[in-house]
Design a protein that fits this description.
By secondary structure, the chain is α+β, with helices and mostly antiparallel strands. The protein contains three helices and eleven strands, in the order E-H-E-E-E-E-H-E-H-E-E-E-E-E. It has two domains: 4-108, Alpha-Beta Plaits (2-Layer Sandwich), CATH 3.30.70; 124-171, SH3 type barrels (Roll). It is globular and about 55 Å long.
C-alpha cells in the first residue's frame, strides 16, 4: 500500500457536501477506510452584517466547488472518487491528480506533521510568539486536527477568545 496524500477534487458548485457524503458512503460500502482516510470541505467562520445592522456568524466554504481528500492514490481509489456523482475531476494536468505539498496544506489549517504537546483544556499557558507574546491565559478549547488552541484574553475590557497554533504556546 502506498502513502496517503491530500488531493483536490473539483465538483459542481453547491455539490461539495453531497460529494463528501457520497464518497464517505462509498468508503463505508467498499471498506476503503485504509485507502481513503479523510474527505473535507474546508469552511471558515465569518460574520455577515445584515441590512438591519445585525451581525450573524456563518460558515462559508473556503473553496466553493472543491473538496479535499486524503487518500492513497491507486486505480481503485481514483476510479471511485472520479466517478462519484457531482465530481468533475481531480485538480492537475489532464486526468493526472497532483498531491498538495505540506506548504500548501498549512494555510488550510491541516497540519501534516504530528506535534507533541504537554498542555490541555483547563491548563494555564504562556504565549511564546506572535501578537499575544508573554500573555498568560487558560486553554478553553483545542482542535487537534488544525493544531490550534483557543485561549481567552482581555481586549478592550472584554474577555475575547483567541486561536493560536500549538507552537505559539507553552505550559506554565
Amino acid at each position: 500500500m502506498g502513502e496517503a496524500h491530500w488531493y483536490v477534487v473539483h465538483t459542481y458548485s453547491g455539490y461539495e457536501n453531497k460529494v463528501k457524503a457520497n464518497i464517505d458512503k462509498a468508503i463505508a460500502n467498499r471498506n476503503l477506510q485504509d485507502e481513503i482516510l479523510e474527505v473535507r470541505v474546508p469552511t471558515q467562520q465569518v460574520v455577515e452584517v445584515k441590512a438591519n445592522g445585525v451581525r450573524k456568524p456563518v460558515e462559508k466554504k473556503m473553496f466553493p466547488g472543491y473538496v479535499l481528500i486524503n487518500m492513497v492514490m491507486n486505480d481503485d481509489t481514483w476510479f471511485i472518487v472520479r466517478n462519484t456523482r457531482g465530481v468533475t475531476g481531480f485538480v492537475g494536468p489532464g486526468s493526472k491528480a497532483v498531491p498538495l505539498s505540506d506548504d500548501e496544506m498549512k494555510p488550510l489549517g491541516i497540519h501534516v506533521e504530528n506535534m507533541k504537546i504537554d498542555f490541555g483544556v483547563g491548563d494555564t499557558v504562556k504565549v511564546v510568539a506572535g501578537a499575544w507574546k508573554d500573555t498568560i491565559a487558560v486553554v478553553n478549547k483545542m482542535d487537534m486536527g488544525k493544531q490550534i488552541a483557543t485561549i481567552t484574553v482581555e481586549l478592550f475590557g472584554r474577555e475575547t477568545p483567541v486561536e493560536l497554533s500549538f507552537d505559539e504556546i507553552m505550559k506554565l
